[in-house]
C-alpha cells in the first residue's frame, strides 16, 4: 500500500493531522459559479421537482464529490500485476467540513462508509469530519430547466449511463412497464453528450406519452487534477446524486440496471482483480450504499438492481423484444472513453467490449451493432496490446471452465470470490445462493461458447485458409488451442498447506497441499470442526460448544468462524463460541436472556470443574442441552428453568451428526482429509481432535469478503 495521502476539503485545516504538508491534496468544491478547483453542476432540474434537500443529503453529495475527485487525482501505483498488492492500493485520509459532524463521525456511519468504499475501490479510507464554517444553499449546484415537459411526478429514479444494461432498464421501465421515471446521468466526458442526447430522443419516441424526465450531472475539475483513469469510486458519487434527487421527489429508492455477471464480477484473470475489477453494483457495495443511505435518510432507503440474475445476452433480448433494437448501436459500453472517436465508439479490447460482443452475438442481435464501431474486432483482427490478448483468451477460458463444471461445489472451489457475495444475496442458505450464482454463470458460459461456435461456422473458410491474423481470437481458439494455457484466475495469495476456515460466507479447506475444496449447507458441522482443529488435543465440552454456537447462530445466521483476536488472546473453551452483539431479532428480551443464561452456565461449569463436583457438572450439562433446544426451537425462555429433562444425548447426537455431514461432503472431493478427520475426532460428553502426528492448521477466517 502507498504512503498515506491527506485530502483536505474546503477550508478544513491540516493542523494536528497532516504529517507531510507538501504531499497534501487541497480540494475546494463550488457550485455553477465555479470558484473552486472542483465544480458540481446538476442540470435540467424542473422547478416542480425541487422541494429542498436535508442537510445530511447536502453533506452526502459533497462527500461523494470529494471522494470521486480525489480518486482521479491520486495516482495508483505501477500498472503491472505484481504491484497490485502494494503500490496499487492507496491510503486516503479525508478531512471534510460537514453540517453535522457528530452524525458523520459516529461509529456506525464511519464503519459503513469506510468499509463500502474500501471494497468498492480496493483502497484504504479514513475520514475526519469537522464543522462547516461557511454554509451555502444547495441551489448553488442546480441549473433549472423548465422547457422539458412534465408527464406527472416520477415514480422511480433510475441511474442511466447510456450502456446496454441501463438502456435496457430504461426501456423496461417506460416501454414495457409504462412507468414514469427520472433518468439520472453522470456525464464524465463531453464525448458522450451527443450520444446521450440521441439515446434520450430515441427513447422518448418509443415512450409515447410516458417520456422519461432526465437530469444530468457534471463534476468539472481543473486540468491538473486529472491523473488516474480507474475511477472506481464513481458509483458512490452516482448513487449519492440519485439518492439526493430521489429525496427531492420524496422517493425512497434508486435503481441500477446491470447484469449479474458484471455485478458479481468474478475475476477472469489477474489483469482484472482488486481495484481493476469494477464493483459498481456488486451486492456487497449495493448493501453498503443502502445501509449508508438509510442512515442518512433516517428511514429505510432501497438501492436495487433488478437485473442481478440476468446475463448480458438476456439484457440485449429485452431491448430487441421491446422493438428498440435501433437504439443498440447508439449505446456505449467501452471503459476506455478517452479512446473514443466519431468513427470508433468502442475500443474492442477491454473487458466490457469483449462482454458486449459476445452478448450481442448470443442474443442474435449483431446486425444492430456494427462491427465498424469497434476500433478492433476481437474475433477477427490482431490485437496490439498483450493484456488485451490475455483478457480475451482468459474470458473465453473461464466460460470453458464453467461450462465443464458439473456441480456448485466445484464452482465455488474454482472461484473462491463467490464466497464474498453469498451473504449479500438475501437467500436463507449459502447453498441456495451459491446454486443461483452457479446457474447464472452456467447460462453465461453457454452463451459465450455458443457465440464463438457460431463465429467459427461463419469464418470456417478463413480459418482453414489461415487468412485471419494469427493472434485473433478465432485463430487462437481453432488452431493453437493456446487459450487452454491461460489460467482463468492467477492467485496472488500464498496458501498454507493445511487450512479449514471461513471465506466470506463459505467454508473452505485444504489438506497436505492438495486442491482447495468448499463446503456448502454444512455450516454448523464446519464450524465445529474449525473449533476442534484450532485446539488439537484439548478436550472440550460438547454442551458448551453447542450452547455458544446456538446463541451465535441467532445473531449471525451464516456464522463467522473463530475470530482472530480470540485465538491470539488465548481462546477459552469455557466461553463457548464467541457471542457477538444482538442483531435484529423478533424477541430481543428472550435472546438477551439466552445469552445471560449461557454465560452463567459457563461460569458455573468452570466452578464445578474446579471443585470436582461431577453431579453438578451433569446437572449443568442437562441445562445446557435444554437451552440449545429452546434456542433451536425458536422459543423465548421467559426465565431460567432448572428442572428439565435429560436432553444431553440429543445434543451429543446432533453435534456428531453435524460433523459427520460435513465430513461426508469432504469425502466426495478429498478422501484423505475425510479419513484423517474420522480417525482424529473423538466424540462423547467431551470432544477432542487428537491426530496421530502434529499438523498445523490455519483456521482464521478470511474476513475481507
TrEMBL record:
Q: Per UniProt, which keywords does this protein have?
A: ATP-binding, Coiled coil, Ligase, Metal-binding, Nucleotide-binding, Queuosine biosynthesis, Zinc
Q: Copy the pathway line from the protein's UniProt record.
A: Purine metabolism; 7-cyano-7-deazaguanine biosynthesis
Give the source species: Mizugakiibacter sediminis
Its recorded name reads 7-cyano-7-deazaguanine synthase
Assigned EC number: 6.3.4.20
The record ties this protein, via Pfam families, to: QueC (PF06508)
GO MF entries: ATP binding; ligase activity; metal ion binding
- Could you say which protein family the record assigns here? Belongs to the QueC family.
Could you say which enzyme class this protein belongs to?
A: ligase
Q: Which InterPro entries match?
A: QueC (IPR018317), Rossmann-like_a/b/a_fold (IPR014729)
Q: Which residues form a coiled coil?
A: 588-618
- Kindly list the biological process annotations in GO that this record carries: tRNA queuosine(34) biosynthetic process
Under catalytic activity, the entry for this protein gives:
7-carboxy-7-carbaguanine + NH4(+) + 2 ATP = 7-cyano-7-carbaguanine + 2 AMP + 2 diphosphate + 2 H(+)
PANTHER family, per database record: 7-CYANO-7-DEAZAGUANINE SYNTHASE (PTHR42914:SF1)
